[in-house]
Amino acid sequence: MNQDPRDLTLRRRQALYRATHRGTFESDLLLGRFAAAHIDALDEAALAAFEALLDCDDADLVAWITGQAEPPPVHQTPLFEALRKFHAS
Questions:
Q1: Is the pLDDT of residue 2 over 70?
Q2: What's 9's domain CATH number?
């Protein structure tokens, strides 16, 4: 079943909002900057991976993105690697 493009657009907007209103300054910057730059290009699978990351604890996310800790295997996705590389440059 093909997803309605409007649903994907709505999910992207919701994910962008969630990424920029996390509750901690560091996670707002790390996730929000990435989302602002890439959210419109995410396909359904990448968006689902990003949404799954948004459900994680801020402290864990910051540690994973900055390389202080490795994320669990479920979050070791191409999307996560793109997020990590985005902030490494």
A1: no
A2: 1.10.150.250
